[in-house]
Write a structure and sequence with these properties.
about 600 residues; 7-stranded mixed β-sheet; 5-stranded mixed β-sheet; about 30% helix
């Protein structure tokens, strides 16, 4: 519904009128009718309201066809800020967020509005009742992605699923072991071809129904029915047998020592047997979804949770439209800021933590070009030099990468390599001066892309840039020759690594040829059968093939940062380094 503020902003922003404060401008009712999207009769009503509240001064024209005079008494920025603040005071976060993206504002005002908006984030405790309701509000700099466990591909959405749903068991990164979750015990036979899981009794879904072995069986079958991109991991399961409501057996066609990793990963979240993917996601986790649309997802603590009920009562995650953002407010996947009204940096705790995985470059082998030749990829290895990248650009790029695993990269003896070496390799690659397209995520990787373009130009290599504006577009296939991406691994890094190589829906599989993929298929086929040491060795071999052939160029390891008010307690990390929402609480709100 249009307000007096909306009408004023439309008038003040109209380029034809070119209104300036305190400077009268001649106008016609017909023109104002077009700007305000209303009838001439309503124009007079709106203008009268604007004049009553001293937004404008209005002198009506006398006689039909004569001009009237309109004078702005307030500035565009002042009224925009007033409107924005009023929306926030009324709790209309959606409208306030939309307002930032719907009008043109200068950087100074945008920064000011964003600061005001962030002051509305963080914890709110409603103490007007004895029970009190603690609510955490968060901002995200993109739209919510896929929340289906069979197909989820982004870190934040995977993290959310872990707050809403549960798996049979959970992986503990600190002890490198598996802990009970929906299953309280499990066992396998000597050759690891038969596994039995014993389920907890009394576990409820968010809709109140009891969870049983039938739901576990249906959740596995659903992966096959939906043709999940991760089916390679479950291909050895020949038969599922429900022994009782709380006991389920899996029979495998061959030994599988990796099975516990598969039943603790997000793909094997347990959903109700009759789950409808078009309906609101129902799980067994500490939080349940109460509202979900393109603007916000609202979570509420699930009082029937089989574990310890969260201290927070509500979590509201708002998604900012892309036009409101600039580099200053861009956030890495998994990074968010919590703030409180009137806080200062003295009241904040800053938490830094490196993420498993790294930024990297791929080559699109489905299109022709000199990138099919090894000397060209070796030249790009020098241009996209990890050591120089970290030293030149810094920020949250903390260490150069030669692997997805930081501890392997740390074992390298790093030094910069001269671009003259890249120039010699480029001459061997049949490069004829044609421009090559580089695909990257706008805002997040813009500085890296421009840095690459500049370094390439020093040796005569022309790189054109193809930024993606929308986060979801990043996973769509591009016709670019060069692809910049980032991989964030699960805490269960063995699973994260093998999932990178065997997930059919990620960027690696999108741009590799079937011949290259078959190399990894053959190498990794026995992966699930091996003990831990054998699996680690196999993953090292796989990364060695990437480096040796230049099929993938590791860039740098990234650091994540969260700003947390000093009154926030219970800070424990969950998957991908996010804070576990179910453990957070606030002291003296």
């Amino acid at each position: 519904m249009d307000t007096i503020y909306t009408h004023f902003l439309r008038l003040a922003a109209d380029e034809q009128l070119s209104l300036k404060m305190k400077e009268p401008v001649q106008v016609t009712i017909e023109h104002l009718s077009s700007i305000l999207c209303c009838t001439p009769r309503n124009v007079k009503f709106i203008v009268r309201k604007l004049e009553e509240q001293r937004f404008v001064h209005w002198i009506p024209g006398r006689g039909r066809g004569n001009y009237s005079t309109l004078t702005l008494l307030r500035g565009f920025n002042d009224v925009l800020e007033m409107h924005f603040s009023e929306l926030l005071c009324k709790g209309k976060l959606k409208e306030a967020i939309e307002l930032i993206g719907s009008v043109r504002v200068d950087d100074v005002l945008r920064d000011k509005l964003m600061h005001t908006l962030q002051q509305q984030m963080g914890f709110r405790s409603h103490t007007e009742t004895a029970s009190g309701q603690d609510t955490l509000r968060m901002l995200r700099s993109r739209q919510l992605g896929d929340l289906d466990p069979a197909s989820v591909y982004t870190a934040f959405e995977t993290y959310l699923l872990g707050q809403i749903c549960n798996t049979l068991i959970s992986y503990d990164a600190h002890t490198d072991s598996f802990l009970p979750a929906l299953a309280h015990a499990w066992e396998s036979n000597n050759d690891h071809r038969e596994w039995i899981f014993y389920l907890r009794k009394g576990v409820r879904f968010h809709d109140g129904r009891w969870m049983t072995a039938q739901d576990v069986q249906a959740s596995l079958n659903r992966l096959f029915e939906m043709n999940s991109s991760s089916l390679w991991f479950y291909r050895d399961i020949e038969h599922t047998e429900i022994i009782s409501d709380y006991c389920i057996r899996f029979r495998l066609r061959r030994s599988n020592r990796f099975l516990l990793h598969l039943f603790s990963c997000i793909r094997m979240i347990v959903l109700p047997a009759d789950h409808d993917q078009n309906q609101t996601l129902i799980g067994t986790g500490p939080f349940q979804i109460t509202e979900k649309n393109e603007d916000v997802i609202k979570l509420a603590a699930f009082d029937g949770y089989y574990g310890i009920r969260p201290h927070l009562d509500q979590v509201h995650i708002w998604f900012l439209p892309e036009p409101t953002l600039n580099d200053r407010y861009y956030e890495l996947p998994g990074t968010y800021q919590l703030s409180m009204p009137g806080n200062s940096h003295e009241k904040l705790n800053f938490i830094d933590y490196p993420s498993l995985g790294c930024q990297y470059m791929l080559f699109n082998f489905h299109i022709e070009g000199c990138h099919h030749r090894l000397p060209f990829r070796q030249a790009m290895r020098i241009i996209y030099d990890p050591w120089t990248l970290v030293n030149d650009l810094g920020k949250n790029r903390i260490t150069p990468a030669s692997s997805f695993l930081p501890w392997r990269s740390a074992a390298e003896n790093w030094s910069s390599v001269s671009l003259e070496n890249a120039k010699a390799l480029l001459e061997q690659s049949d490069y004829q001066g044609e421009p090559l397209l580089l695909s990257y995520k706008k805002n997040k990787d813009s500085d890296v892309a421009e840095w690459l373009q500049q370094r390439a130009s020093h040796i005569g290599l022309k790189i054109e840039l193809e930024p993606f504006d929308d986060y979801v577009d990043v996973v769509k296939k591009s016709n670019a020759h060069l692809i910049l991406r980032e991989e964030i691994l699960e805490d269960d890094w063995q699973y994260g690594m093998i999932h990178f190589f065997k997930n059919q829906a990620n960027s690696f599989h999108e741009y590799m040829t079937p011949e290259i993929q078959s190399v990894f298929d053959d190498l990794l086929d026995v992966f699930p059968q091996l003990p831990v040491s054998g699996r680690i060795e196999l993953l090292e071999q796989a990364e060695g093939l990437l480096r040796e052939n230049g099929w993938l160029l590791h860039g740098c390891h990234m650091n994540r940062k969260s700003e947390l008010h000093q009154s926030i307690y219970g800070m424990q990390t969950s998957e991908f380094g996010f804070l576990d929402l179910s453990k957070l609480w606030i002291k003296n709100p």
